[in-house]
Design brief:
Helix content: 25-40%
Number of helices: 10
Order of helices and strands: HHEEEEEEEHEHEHEEEHHEHEHH
Structural class: alpha/beta
Shape: globular
CATH topology of the largest domain: Nucleotidyltransferase, domain 5
Distance between the termini: 32 Å
CATH architecture of the largest domain: 2-Layer Sandwich
Radius of gyration: 18 Å
CATH superfamily of the largest domain: ATPase, nucleotide binding domain
Length: about 300
C-alpha cells in the first residue's frame, strides 16, 4: 500500500467511515509527497488540526481525531436594531465573506462544533476558498478564521480540495476536470500537475431544494463545455478519458448530470458523498502537508 492509500484510509476512518471506489472515469487516489509529507493517524490525533468548509448555505468542519463531520447552516443570530427581534444573518455570499463580523461569529461557533479533544491549543486550520475569490476575499476568510482559531490558517482552492476528497490524482500531468456545485457558486476547473490550469465560475442568486434552477442549468453546461474547448488540443483526449467528476451539494441533480452527458459526450459521475468532498480533501491534506504546501503555493 502506497502512502496516499494509507492517508486515504486513515482519513476515511477519522472522517466518514467511507471507502472511495474508483469511478468509471478511471480516477486514481491522490499521491502523497513521499513519506516525509505523510502523518500517521496517531500523529494526526495528537496534533490539533481542523478542516473547514465555509459554504453559502451550510458550513462543515472536521477535527483531527473526530469521527463525525459537524454540519450547520451558515447563519448566526442577531438582534434587529429596529424591533429587537432575533433575525438570522448569512455571513457568506457566493462562497465568499459578505459580513466579516458575522463570519467571525460563525467560525467561532463552527470551532465549538468541531469538539476538539484535549487541552492543547489548535495548531492549524485548512479552509477552502473559491477559485473566483479575489485577493481581498481571500484575506477576509483568512482574517476571520485566524482571529477565531488563533493559529496558522492554510487556504486551499476548493476545486483542488474537492478533487483530493474525490480521490483524483491531482499531481498527474494529464488533466482531470471537476465541477463543484455549491449553493451560491458553481466552479469548474481543469487540474493537472497539482495546480488549476483553467477555471470558470458562475455566481448564483439562489438554489432550490431540487438543485440548480432551470436558468442556471444552461449556463453551467455551457461554462463546462467552454472550459473543455479551451484546453490545448493535445490535452483534450486525456481529459475526456478521465471524465468529469461532480462534487458539492448539487452534484446529484439528475437533470444536471443528464444535460452534461448529452452536451459533453464523456463520462460524468458524481463523487461519493459529494457534499463532503471538499471537507474530506482538506482533512486528507492535513495528512499530506507537503502536498498541501504545493497547492497553497500554486493557488497564491
Amino acid at each position: 500500500m502506497n502512502p496516499a492509500q494509507q492517508a486515504s484510509r486513515l482519513c476515511d476512518r477519522v472522517a466518514t467511515q467511507h471507502r472511495h471506489k474508483p469511478t468509471s472515469g478511471g480516477v486514481a487516489a491522490a499521491r502523497a509527497e513521499g513519506h516525509e509529507g505523510h502523518e500517521s493517524h496517531e500523529g494526526l490525533v495528537r496534533r490539533r488540526y481542523v478542516a473547514l468548509d465555509l459554504g453559502t448555505a451550510r458550513t462543515r468542519s472536521l477535527s483531527s481525531g473526530a469521527f463525525a463531520i459537524a454540519d450547520r447552516p451558515s447563519t448566526v443570530i442577531a438582534c434587529s436594531p429596529a424591533t429587537g427581534a432575533e433575525v438570522p444573518l448569512w455571513p457568506l455570499r457566493h462562497g465568499m465573506v459578505a459580513d466579516p463580523g458575522a463570519c467571525l461569529r460563525l467560525v467561532r461557533l463552527v470551532l465549538q462544533d468541531a469538539q476538539l479533544p484535549g487541552g492543547r491549543p489548535l495548531e492549524r486550520v485548512l479552509t477552502g476558498v473559491p477559485v473566483a475569490a479575489s485577493p481581498s476575499d481571500r484575506r477576509a476568510v483568512h482574517t476571520a478564521v485566524a482571529e477565531a482559531a488563533g493559529c496558522a490558517v492554510m487556504p486551499v482552492e476548493e476545486p483542488l480540495a474537492a478533487a483530493v476528497g474525490a480521490g483524483l490524482d491531482i499531481t498527474d500531468p494529464r488533466p482531470c476536470l471537476l465541477l463543484d456545485v455549491g449553493a451560491g457558486i458553481v466552479e469548474v476547473a481543469a487540474i493537472r500537475s497539482g495546480a488549476i490550469g483553467d477555471a470558470a465560475a458562475l455566481q448564483l442568486s439562489a438554489t432550490t431544494s431540487a438543485g440548480l434552477p432551470p436558468y442556471a442549468l444552461d449556463s453551467v453546461v455551457e461554462m463546462t463545455a467552454g472550459l473543455l474547448r479551451r484546453l490545448p488540443a493535445h490535452l483534450r483526449p486525456a481529459a475526456r478519458g478521465n471524465g468529469l467528476i461532480v462534487t458539492g451539494g448539487g452534484a446529484r441533480q439528475a437533470q444536471l448530470l443528464h444535460r452534461l452527458r448529452a452536451a459533453l459526450r464523456m463520462p460524468i459521475s458524481a463523487a461519493p458523498e459529494p457534499q463532503h468532498a471538499t471537507l474530506r480533501g482538506l482533512m486528507r491534506l492535513c495528512l499530506q502537508p507537503g502536498l498541501a504546501a504545493r497547492l497553497i503555493a500554486h493557488g497564491g
